[in-house]
Amino acid sequence: MHGMTHRQAVLAMVVVTLMWSIAGVVSRHLESARGFEITFWRSAFNALALVLMLSAWPGHAATSLSLADEKNVRAVIQAQLKAFAADNAREAFALATPALQTKFGTPETFMTMVRTSYPVVYAPGNVAFLKAEAQQADVIQRVQMTDQQGKAWLAVYSLQQQKDKGWRISGCVVVESRGRFI
Questions:
Q1: Closest alpha carbon to 42 in 56, 28, 57, 52
Q2: What is the pLDDT of residues 26-44, one digit of tens each?
Q3: Is residue 58 within 8 Å of residue 83, measured between CB atoms?
Q4: Which of 67, 112, 135, 157 is such that its CA lies 20 to 30 A from the CA of 166?
Q5: What is the pLDDT of residues 101-122, one digit of tens each?
Q6: Which CATH architecture has domain 67-176?
């Protein structure tokens, strides 16, 4: 259930629990209901409530991107990686969202942060893009990378579409990859 907040998840659990309890009360009024039948009706009510709630919940799942958007998202990340490789702070900084640009202030500050905090992103050995996913207003693009020593990493980029319909990077989290590089 991508995109569900903590509050929404708690609400979903409360609703499902209430449906389980209500179904038990209703099924007990059946004259010949046995334990199995009560459990069956509780499960049926629970499943129905869960399906209805999740299908009606806005933004509860990842959606697919158009092929053009997938290519554009990938192109933005590739352009930023190329800018890092050329040590071009201005170009790399220009591919970040206005919010990130405000946070870091200058291209030089941004580049210093990437160089020190994200060395595998600054100078990757190998790069492989996985499937991008739209999640509410963001796109999540997972990218497998190896560092200069051959160690595998997973960079999870978030991108936002701007008013001009272009994509900009809004964040990146890098974690050590326990699997193998594709």
A1: 28
A2: 656 666 666 656 666 666 6
A3: no
A4: 112
A5: 999 999 999 999 999 999 999 9
A6: Roll (3.10)
> Residues of CATH 3.10.450.50 domain(s) within the chain?
67-176
> If you average pLDDT over every residue of the chain, what do you get?
84
Please tell me the pTM assigned to this model: 0.66
- The Cα diameter of the chain in Å comes to 78
Residue type for position 107: P
Residue ranges of E strands in the chain: 127-129, 133-135, 138-146, 152-161, 167-176
* Secondary structure class of 173 (helix, strand, coil): strand
- Residues 74, 89: Cα–Cα separation, whole Å: 19
CA angle 59, 64, 66 (to 5 degrees): 130
